[in-house]
């Protein structure tokens, strides 16, 4: 009985922590214009059609142009926290602030097939 009580309290605490993180991430208002100057590392892999990164394992690199801004910021946060495991993405995300992630998300969300900058996304 005591074990179940402790587990339920831990679950409640974890839920509250996740709500706080989500609220914090939602507070950041991104700017596609500001993001344009922050995606120089992203373009090296994410703009190559059918690119596969091969360190330490083979990963198919997704095209992220047009993706939802909040999803991109959330994914970068997960890499920064180590919840997602790709080593290159983790090291890049570790150098980004919450504002940087929001800006990058807005930049990629604004991309279309006809976007003059990084048209391949």
UniProtKB/TrEMBL annotation:
A GO molecular-function annotation: heme binding
Signal peptide positions on this chain: 1-25
Keywords in UniProt for this one?
Electron transport, Heme, Iron, Metal-binding, Signal, Transport
Q: Can you tell which superkingdom this protein's organism belongs to?
A: Bacteria
Keyword Oxidoreductase in the entry? The reply is: no
Domain named Cytochrome c is located at 30-112
In Swiss-Prot or TrEMBL terms, this protein is called Cytochrome C
Species this protein is from: Polynucleobacter aenigmaticus
């Amino acid at each position: 009985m005591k074990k179940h009580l402790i587990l339920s309290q831990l679950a409640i605490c974890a839920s509250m922590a996740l709500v706080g993180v989500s609220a914090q991430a939602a507070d950041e208002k991104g700017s596609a214009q500001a993001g344009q100057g922050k995606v120089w590392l992203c373009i090296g892999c994410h703009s190559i059609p059918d690119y596969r990164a091969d360190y330490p394992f083979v990963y198919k690199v997704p095209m992220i142009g047009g993706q939802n801004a909040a999803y991109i910021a959330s994914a970068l946060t997960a890499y920064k926290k180590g919840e997602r495991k790709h080593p290159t993405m983790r090291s890049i995300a570790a150098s980004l602030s919450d504002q940087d992630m929001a800006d990058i998300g807005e930049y990629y969300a604004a991309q279309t097939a006809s976007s003059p900058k990084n048209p391949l996304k």
